Amino acid sequence: MSTQPYPAFFSCYNQLDTPFLFVDKQKFINNLTRLRHSVESFGTELRPHFKTVKSLHALPYLLPDKTAPITVSTVKEAELLASEGYSNIIYAVGICENKLPRLRDLIGRGIAVRVLLDSKEQARFLTRFCLLNQCTISALIEIDCDGHRGGLTPDSPDLIEIAQLLHQGTVELEGVLAHAGESYHCYDPVSLRRAADNEVRTTLDAAQRIRSAGISCNMVSIGSTPTAHSYHNLNGITEVRAGAYCFFDLVMAGTGSCKIDDIAASIVTTVIGHNTERGWLLIDAGWMALSADRGTAHQPKDCGFGLVTLSNGELVEHLQVTSVNQEHGIITAMNGCSINFDAFPIGCRLHILPNHACATASMHQHYHVFDTQAQSYDIWTRIQGW
Amino acid sequence: MSTQPYPAFFSCYNQLDTPFLFVDKQKFINNLTRLRHSVESFGTELRPHFKTVKSLHALPYLLPDKTAPITVSTVKEAELLASEGYSNIIYAVGICENKLPRLRDLIGRGIAVRVLLDSKEQARFLTRFCLLNQCTISALIEIDCDGHRGGLTPDSPDLIEIAQLLHQGTVELEGVLAHAGESYHCYDPVSLRRAADNEVRTTLDAAQRIRSAGISCNMVSIGSTPTAHSYHNLNGITEVRAGAYCFFDLVMAGTGSCKIDDIAASIVTTVIGHNTERGWLLIDAGWMALSADRGTAHQPKDCGFGLVTLSNGELVEHLQVTSVNQEHGIITAMNGCSINFDAFPIGCRLHILPNHACATASMHQHYHVFDTQAQSYDIWTRIQGW
């Protein structure tokens, strides 16, 4: 990672071939600081989800303390974080048996990697694996707080049975974990607050039920970017997880979790054609650069495949990317407006704000990180694969 | 690329951590052969589009003759193909000025890289660039045959003006190029045939108009995977381009361009959870492995985020992936059916057929290529970035 001082700053931007992923470093840092302060003000720990930024170069900003907690979505992330010295990891996808050998190797190196489960089958193969391999793996039981995906409701009979299975075996039951994934469909502060309160209450209920059965449950982990910005009481919650908050995106702006101006990642693209008859600007960013994510499709404001800003970050209110192919995008004027083609000549650069930062970032091997304050430029490499 | 003989074949499959992209090599080769034979039977050349497979390891099958024509969607592809000795390339995305220096360097090495344009602005900066750099760049004018994206209609006054601008400058006007992108919305042989005929006729009309103005137009290039399988007369067409045909996918099956059994690429995933109450199988393949492409959403048969097969390729008729997050997918039974959870225990492997092979393949660094006939296994690496 080489930091090039001004005047390389501007020439780098212009010399980079489009499309590329631009990170506004100051916005990125502000987003990190905002949530960390908020969560820590409740006396609770933040466990950032690495899945969004997925770059070792981002770690000095995301999590400077290597003993601090972090969440991952793949074993590969866990392995690379471990190689950087990070030692407190949750692999937050339901565990399957064939991923255990790689995790055992990490645990053998002294890395605390906790796994997630919500079934007796998983509890059984985990116990069996630990016994056969003479190792201890810590596990969290996934709690379903809103019907989003996996997990058990606090009143599920399986909850206590799984806790007992683990408790009797060589698996250490560390606690419970919930993710209020349905909060992505909240669009006002009242529903967000309700989703946040529900996530807290449901997860605490589950922890309480386990403890009532005489089994310890130290960790009570919750989080999603929308709820993480909407808590008002975290008593009993030991940690909050969130990922998309580092970059933010149009889906998050749609939930009210950020302003559009907080979005720290955008795709820089070049206008490669005009279709004056149909009112289209053709750009060299298609789904290969933007992703095909349509996360705002069901929000009150549908942003197509992304909104448009100028290089200085100024939103071009009436434009959006309405269609994408592999390496082509089409920008159209919305709400009865028309495009002033002279203002967007062939060759000019625009930025496209992503619907979903995790998805857009995943399409890129590198982030081009510009610090407008320090006038510096870095390249951050992204982790790929599983 | 190491070819491991049987019995490594089966153990490789089982040892690979999910999710991964599985290529059925025999189906891949059959798909390549089928279209090549069909196009060549018309006395016309096939110019495969590299954008789908994007792997140098695939070249011995896709295009064994290095002097034969190939299409690319990025300058990076052109550079890597050139480094492998391929010398007859079309960069089939409207050209912008800042991509010219890299193309000039390729042309200087004796690689014929043709660029695409549809505006006088592009003709002017291309002419200026060639003059300043004392080089010759060959260009094709993009023809719009169905309102899909870029290009000029044959009756556009700009067509002749651009041809004249190029003809007078140091840019060599090589011909015209069209892509019947709207044929992706055809769902029966009659509409496909109509789209194919229209692509042929429109492009020939444009070539004829240019020739009538006293300017040569040698190359008449057309193609899209659906139309490429539906021509009945290619007189006057010098080449056909197609990309997705190598893997095929559910969108192409929906157009009738292939059978579901022809699909050569699938994502191998593990069942990581059961939600018996909601009727969900949770799998470890989300949009990160499958892509968020919803290309079948507007087809008569909407396949969600993909259809499900067993490891042996057998389609599980009533199942589809109905929801994806980053590393999670949810499989649901459709049409009033219910899931037999005992048939899909936690830990079992399934294959997900992609909506759009280009998009799904783009999510992977490697393809795991299994030849069921030769009982061999290869890893093919994919080109990434721009």
From TrEMBL, chains A, B:
One Pfam family, short name: Ala_racemase_N
UniProt KW Iron-sulfur keyword: no
Domain D-serine dehydratase-like residues, every copy: 264-371
MF annotations from Gene Ontology: D-serine ammonia-lyase activity
Lineage: superkingdom: Bacteria
GO BP of this protein: D-serine catabolic process
Keywords: Lyase
Family as reported in the entry's similarity comment: Belongs to the DSD1 family.
Protein name: Metal activated pyridoxal enzyme
Organism in which the protein naturally occurs: Photobacterium marinum
